[in-house]
């Protein structure tokens, strides 16, 4: 069971991420930057409350003595913000299929970073899974005749975030709190400007339900991020990269069967290759589970 704890938690985080468009569907029309600002503000409030209740304050003295860890945490926040901005723009403009394509790119970045920076070695199953995923993406690139720069930037940012989190050894709640704290001044500044400028504000002008939905965007995004960060340090980055296909696969299914978006035949063929790679990548985890269950107790 401990062997599967990390990959299992990571897989659950991607399931929740894949279902996140359902939450955004019930949000009324809102300025994207207001949504992002309130997500940061209420994330700081929620995480501070949780750490206070758990009596787990941020070890400021230890952080000052570890400038490398502090620098990694300070970098993680802005890197994640870029991905969240692009992700939120897709969801608030009804382009769920675009998020699916973007996150199909991320696992490949994860695997490359795992091999280059963490010196991980790929199993035969992972080699085959990567080959199938690359075949699907290569087919889409060949048919479209251009690189999907939006997807590359979005996927690359999230992969870099995963690599940074792999090197941070502080507890998940503390590191997420510090990441949000870094972004808090800009979030407060935008909300303050929105109030003074007289522009429509969902938090000020909306109903109580609208305010609660806006505040709820913090836990709705923190829970999958927290699970991802917890499982990330207990899972090989190459495995994380392959499990990450769960999120865009769910987003693709939601886009087609729930939101009524219509993928073209090129994407359908490409996604079939990627899904085949995902199924192949799960084989080592299944064998690992059977081996753990069949091992006699010590």
UniProtKB/TrEMBL annotation:
Domain of life: Bacteria
Residues of the EamA domain: 9-141, 159-282
Main localization of the protein described in the UniProt heading: membrane
Ranges that cross the membrane: 40-58, 70-89, 95-118, 148-164, 176-194, 214-233, 240-259, 271-288
Keywords recorded for this protein, A-Z: Cell membrane, Membrane, Transmembrane, Transmembrane helix, Transport
Pfam entry (one): EamA
Membrane topology: Multi-pass membrane protein
Subcellular location per the Swiss-Prot or TrEMBL entry: Cell membrane
Matches recorded under InterPro entries: EamA_dom, EmrE-like, RarD
Family of the protein in this entry: Belongs to the EamA transporter family.
UniProt-recorded name of the protein: EamA family transporter RarD
Organism: Aeromonas schubertii
Gene designation per UniProt: rarD
């Amino acid at each position: 069971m401990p062997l599967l704890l990390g990959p299992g938690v990571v897989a659950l985080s991607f399931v929740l991420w894949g279902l996140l468009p359902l939450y955004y569907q019930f949000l009324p029309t809102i300025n994207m930057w207001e949504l992002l600002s309130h997500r940061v503000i209420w994330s700081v409030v929620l995480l501070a409350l949780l750490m206070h209740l758990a009596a787990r304050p941020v070890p400021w003295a230890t952080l000052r003595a570890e400038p490398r860890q502090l620098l990694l945490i300070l970098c993680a926040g802005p890197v994640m913000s870029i991905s969240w901005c692009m992700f939120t723009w897709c969801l608030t403009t009804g382009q769920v299929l675009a998020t699916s394509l973007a996150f199909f790119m991320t696992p490949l970045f994860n695997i490359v970073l795992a091999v280059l920076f963490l010196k991980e070695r790929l199993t035969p199953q992972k080699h085959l899974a990567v080959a199938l995923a690359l075949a699907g993406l290569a087919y889409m690139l060949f048919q479209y005749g251009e690189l999907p720069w939006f997807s590359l930037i979005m996927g690359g940012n999230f992969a870099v975030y995963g690599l940074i989190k792999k090197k941070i050894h502080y507890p998940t709640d503390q590191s997420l709190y510090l990441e949000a704290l870094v972004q808090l001044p800009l979030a407060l500044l935008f909300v303050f400007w929105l109030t003074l400028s007289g522009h429509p504000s969902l938090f000020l002008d909306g109903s109580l339900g609208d305010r609660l939905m806006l505040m709820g965007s913090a836990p709705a995004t923190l829970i999958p991020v927290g699970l991802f960060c917890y499982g990330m340090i207990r899972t090989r980055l190459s495995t994380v990269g392959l499990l990450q296909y769960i999120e865009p696969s769910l987003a693709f299914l939601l886009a087609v069967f729930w939101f009524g978006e219509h993928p073209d035949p090129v994407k359908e063929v490409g996604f079939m290759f990627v899904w085949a790679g995902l199924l192949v990548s799960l084989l080592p985890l299944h064998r690992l589970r059977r081996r753990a269950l069949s091992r006699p107790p010590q």
